[in-house]
Design a protein that fits this description.
436 residues, alpha+beta, 6-stranded antiparallel β-sheet, 5-stranded parallel β-sheet, 13 helices, disordered C terminus
């Protein structure tokens, strides 16, 4: 039941960002993966993705939901006159039996930092058991990124006030307050774009997953060496992780495969499509071009040497001045989407949770060090990150971080997200159903 309530909370406000991108992807790839197709919605929650699939032309949707929210979702489906097209199952994905295989799987399976408490295992199970050969997953690819961050304003807000609490000096609580802030990874905090100490283009790719082909074993361990160059003066307080998801169509996948294999259909269409997918300029809609241009110009300007030489206050003023233009471009693109203009079919839709992107309920994951380290523009920040899946609590992970500034090592830090690797599992009879 709690999972269902959480789904309802995420359906408001920050959830609008991901819903728009799912809708854009489905309407963009109607012909390839939705029109007259059978669709599986894995972990349907309120059923919104199922409704999107019907809007995109699906002839049948099997909506699977393990929580009691399934009963209300079924009522909503009936109220909208779609009981014959959307079949809601109250079941775990691993337990359900469908009457047929499906052409497309949609799912909002992602958790904090992509993999924490995610439904990835259920999606891959559904793929292996129920997806037809050549079928498509939405999203089809996911990537986790990492970058160094400053958290000065966060610490001032969470810790600084102890020096004056209603006129009383409570600074003896400062060490405990700081320890509480840095003990665990923070997955409920928005990392401001201003906090990122490296350029967006220099963020490290920790791992890339191809959902069409990957195994669940690929999330058991991810280790990457890190190297960044500080783009401005500041204080290194830790690392942030975020992710992107790509929504490709099955036609795009075939085109990409044609490039790799060097194959083409009799009329050459497959090779032509592959060439387009490989990078030729697609005829995007004017509204989408305007949005991409606006966002691209904004990110490039924010990462420029001129911008990084300004004070934080001056950078904030510039961002505030340009925000109305970005909002206008975003609103225009969404209005065009609702009017039926979803953009070019040979370009993937991308959902980003990066600092600077429009905020989502996933926010970013902050791994904060015990103490901050001053950095100057041009300083080299190096180290490594080792992400391992918890042996007992399988939806939890451990992050071991090493870091140095210009070769001077910081103390190593180990974070448990959420249970640490050193926390032993209770006896089996004491573990609640579903805890693993």
């Amino acid at each position: 039941a709690e999972d269902g309530i959480r789904d309802l909370r995420m359906s408001r406000g920050l959830g609008d960002v991901y819903k728009r991108q799912y809708l854009r992807a489905m309407l963009r790839h109607v012909e390839a993966d939705f029109k007259d197709k059978v669709v599986l919605d894995c972990g349907c929650g309120t059923g919104l993705l199922s409704f999107f699939a019907i809007k995109a032309g699906a002839k049948k949707v099997y909506a699977i939901e393990g929580s009691n929210l399934a009963f209300t979702t079924r009522e909503v489906v009936e109220r909208n006159g779609l009981g014959d097209k959307i079949i809601v199952y109250h079941s775990r994905m691993e337990d359900v039996e469908l009457p047929e295989k499906v052409d497309t799987i949609v799912s909002e399976w992602m958790g904090a930092c992509l993999i924490f408490e995610s439904m990835l295992g259920s999606v891959l199970y559904a793929r292996d058991k129920w997806l037809k050969p050549g079928g498509q997953l939405y999203p089809s690819r996911s990537t986790i990124f990492c970058g160094p961050i400053e958290a000065k304003e966060f610490f001032e807000k969470k810790i600084g006030f102890w020096s004056d609490v209603y006129g009383f000096d409570m600074t003896p609580f400062l060490p405990t307050a700081r320890a509480c802030c840095v003990e665990k990874p923070m997955f409920d905090r928005l990392v401001d774009e201003e906090d990122l100490l490296c350029k967006h283009a220099d963020a490290a790719v920790l791992v890339h997953y191809d959902l069409q082909t990957m195994s669940i074993d690929e999330i058991e361990r991810v280790r990457r060496d890190l190297r960044f160059v500080a783009k401005r003066d500041g204080t290194l307080h830790g690392l942030a992780c975020w992710f992107t998801c790509d929504f490709e169509s099955s036609a795009m996948r075939r085109a990409q495969k044609a490039i790799v294999d060097g194959t083409e259909s009799e009329d050459g269409s497959e090779t032509a499509a592959a060439a387009t997918a490989a990078g030729s300029s697609a005829a995007a809609s004017p509204t989408e071009c305007a949005l991409v241009a606006a966002l691209g110009t904004a990110v490039e300007a924010r990462d420029s040497d001129e911008q990084n030489a300004l004070t934080r206050e001056q950078r904030a003023e510039r961002r505030a001045a340009e925000q109305p233009r970005l909002d206008e471009a975003d609103d225009a693109a969404h209005a065009a989407l609702l009017a039926g203009d979803a953009g070019p079919t040979d370009v993937a839709v991308v959902l980003s949770t990066s600092p600077g992107a429009k905020a989502t309920h996933w926010k970013q994951l902050s791994l904060l060090f015990d103490a901050g380290v001053p950095v100057r523009r041009g300083d080299e920040i190096t180290g490594s990150i080792d992400i391992t899946r918890n042996t007992y609590w399988r939806r939890h992970f451990n992050f071991d971080v090493e870091c140095a500034v210009n070769g001077d090592a910081l103390p190593n830090k180990s974070f448990g997200l959420w249970r640490h690797k050193t926390v032993q599992a209770p006896a089996p009879e004491n573990i609640p159903d579903g805890a693993l």
